Amino acid sequence: MLKINKLCAIFMASLSLLIATKVTAQDDSDNRITTLRLEARADFDYNRSTDGSSETYGFYGRYFNLHMGGNLSNKVSYYLRQRIIADNGTHNFFDNTDFLYINYMPNEHWRFRFGKDAMAIGGFEYDAAPIDVYYNGVYWDNFYCFQLGASLAYLTNEGKHSLVAQVTNTPYNGFGADWGNFSYNLMWAGHMGHFHTLWSASVFDKGLATSAPGDRLAYFAAGNKLAFDHWNMYVDLMAHYDNSDIVYRSMVARLELRFNEGWSLFGKGVYEEGTGVIEDIFFPYDGRRAMAGVGFENHPRYCRDLRYHAYVAFEKTSNGVNGGYEGISANVGLTWNINVLKSLERRYNW
Predict the structure, then answer these.
(1) Are 113 and 120 in contact, with CB atoms under 8 Å apart?
(2) 129-138 exposure pattern, b = at least 16 Cβ within 10 A, e = fewer
């Protein structure tokens, strides 16, 4: 309860700061707070094994996030995404902070960023906001991707291509790595007409008590996407290498069809394979896992800030926990946004 009260106090202080900034500097666009909103998602989950040996279901509050961002000057900006949950985290105070960084752009081509950020790793499932992901791979759930660090990016004209070099704390920090171990990431994001890319190469220091000095893991990801007005499709390919041996590889594919009135249908498949899992702690299976499903989502015309969705998916693992699993899952959920900034602008006529 104490932590919830602290978070409420932080949010109210942010509102006060926003109002003060707006009132005293309405004509100074460099100092505006340009983003201030809340988002939430709640689901009803149903899971059942094929043999009927297990069955779980119930309502689940999945996300409640605060977004805040703006400009400190015409070259410096900031951004925050905070998960508002009563959880102390498993690693440190910043566990529940996804983004808290400063951008410095001396010109339109170069960007320096420092703070808490997502690791610059390819793949479109990874790149999507977690609140927009309905079912996913085991790796996605176990990768400690938000880390403190710094990055330098070069952006081409009109932002069609960007090359990012980044150094952060190692993602093994979430699993007990010593401090002083890092991740080194290089990522290319490309927009070539209808074809988009998110490709990356990374090296992670392990730093675990069971690791040898200088022990590292190499990671490669290639996200490939076709995007059109009424449909898009992506295919993500990923692989982890430990001492030149593949210890994890996966493919994620998703097809989305968009219709009028905010409707869309999607189908998604996930295939993962891991070996030597004692060393690759991001994928807790020594075997294979496959998952495929279909679903829909809709932003109703009467309220575009509201979204409801539903899906059904089938899953099968082999040589995994308890020797394997085969079952079905279904989910129905609701997501909503509260644009605090827009509400204040209407209230005070900003």
Answers:
(1) no
(2) ebbeebbbbb
Residues 293, 312: Cα–Cα separation, whole Å:
6
Measure the CA–CA gap between 205 and 129, rounded to whole angstroms.
Answer: 26
Q: What are the residues whose beta carbons fall under 8 Å from the beta carbon of 45, sequence distance 6 or more?
A: 56, 57, 58, 59, 60, 329, 330, 331
Could you read off the pLDDT of 240-256 as tens digits, one per residue?
Answer: 998 778 899 999 999 99
- Phi–psi pair at 348, nearest 5 degrees: -105, 5
Other beta carbons within 10 angstroms of residue 8's beta carbon come to 11
Q: What is the pLDDT of residues 23-54, one digit of tens each?
A: 444 444 556 789 999 999 999 999 999 988 89
- Read off the pLDDT band of 346 (50, 70, 90): low
Write down how long the chain is.
350
Rounded to an integer, what distance in angstroms lies between the CA atom of residue 86 and that of residue 88?
A: 7
Measured between alpha carbons, how far is 87 from 13 in angstroms, rounded to an integer?
A: 21
| Residue 244, helix vs strand vs coil | coil
Pick from 222, 319, 322: nearest CA to 276: 319
